[in-house]
Specification:
Two copies of one chain form a homodimer. With about 220 residues, chain A is mainly alpha-helical. Chain A has two domains: about 45 residues, Homeodomain-like (Arc Repressor Mutant, subunit A); about 150 residues, Tetracycline Repressor, domain 2, CATH 1.10.357.10. Chain A contains ten helices and no strands. The relative contact order of chain A is 0.10. Chain A binds a DNA duplex (30 and 30 nucleotides) through helix 3.
Chain lengths: ~220, ~220
DNA sequence: TTGTGGCCCGACCGAACGGTCGGTTAAGAT
DNA sequence: ATCTTAACCGACCGTTCGGTCGGGCCACAA
């Protein structure tokens, strides 16, 4: 029936174009805010053709999310495993997370939406459950990392799950904040140096909060 | 939940009913995700009557946001002014911000939406500009607080605007995270003790990051 | 008594929504 | 030469969208 992932590299065309366009529009205006007509037109084909590639708007949206999580896992996966102290590994994971968010401006917005929106999406859709699983796995990876650092005495005994919430806010929200964030920070959020600075700021905040006594260790990247 | 109007006359007031209903629905599913018919029905009157109270869906949404910012200013305003060390004042502001988010579960979601969504709303609408002004003022208040703490040598020389982004993420996002957040933390986000714990966690993270002991712990490399 | 104005309604409007249907190409495969 | 199939399309479907319109009801002022 549906051989979704079987065709690989040799597809330059419509399907990917639709995904690209949908990713951008959905990120900016949300699932309910974008119509399939608009997507089809922007992708350069008719609405009927769009429905030829994706059986419904739902599955198109989920396909977009799927690609997003592919990219995130690609960036974070290597960072979570590997050697080093807990602090080093957490910092590497933060770098990876920020890289994932900065790769495409659409990523943080779609992730943020999928995190806080009580989705209108069908719960039964297998693609939906699969995405939840992947998200859970990522969270679990981070959680274990923090827990290990606390158990080994390297970190203060913070609640790891609260720290994860803060971390998500500091990374995902920052790069999702669009006009507001740019007005606040004063520069484009996705310029290479702005991304590098965000990494520095987040890591230094994680490392020693606002306290001066933490000393000014500039860990270069 | 009717807040201020309930002390007054026995009128539940259709207008307020509409605002209450709209606030809850918009918070959950966003501006584009909610139709005026649904709102009217949930408020117990007809669509035409809704349009008698609010000239368009836009102004209804903006009226909802307006109430939200009223509440936030009520909570944070006093905290920003007042005496004490910079750290004390920042912590008081964080308490106020979290109180504002925890007062109604709708608040953080609507704030988050208004921060990261490139709104479909008319830029010219005066109500829209007014909300932007109020947001700017809040940000400016926080920013001055941090800047003063840094200048006085009490805080590390972090970039205050980055710290603000992190702070917003740690507070607004946390309480906006709904199902995801509850699954992660493991308890209802808005229970009194959960709110208190979040205050503690955020303040301790702000205070000394993940580092054990507020001092030393030099990281080489 | 006769407004008058606040509040409410059913009926209706054109546009847009997600989705279907039948049919037309063009490229391979048999 | 025929059959299959992926890709595409225009036309159409029923529903819902935000919004309008004309009028009904009722408390209260003149």
């Amino acid at each position: 029936m549906d051989s979704a992932a079987s065709l690989e590299s040799a597809t330059p065309s419509s399907r990917d174009k639709i995904l690209d366009v949908a990713e951008e529009r959905f990120a900016r205006r949300g699932y309910a805010g974008v119509g399939v007509r608009e997507l089809a037109e922007a992708a350069g084909l008719s609405k009927s053709s769009l429905f030829h590639h994706f059986r419904s708007k739902d599955v198109l949206y989920l396909a977009v999310l799927d690609r997003i999580f592919d990219r995130i896992e690609r960036h974070i996966g290597p960072a979570l495993s590997g050697a080093g102290s807990s602090l080093e590994r957490v910092e590497r994971a933060i770098d990876g997370l920020i890289d994932a968010m900065a790769e495409h401006p659409t990523t943080p917005r779609l992730v943020l939406r999928s995190l806080f929106e009580d989705d209108d999406l069908p719960e039964d859709e297998p693609a939906n459950e699969m995405i939840s699983k992947r998200l859970d796995a990522l969270i679990e990876g981070f959680s274990e990392l923090l827990t290990r650092g606390i158990e080994s005495g390297e970190f203060r005994p913070v609640e790891p799950r609260h720290a994860i919430q803060t971390l998500i806010g500091a990374t995902v929200f920052h790069f999702a904040s669009g006009e507001f964030g740019e007005a606040l920070i004063g520069t484009p959020l996705f310029a290479a140096d702005a991304v590098a600075e965000r990494k520095r700021e987040v890591k230094s905040l994680i490392h020693s909060g606002l306290n001066r006594s933490g000393s000014a260790q500039e860990t270069p990247r």
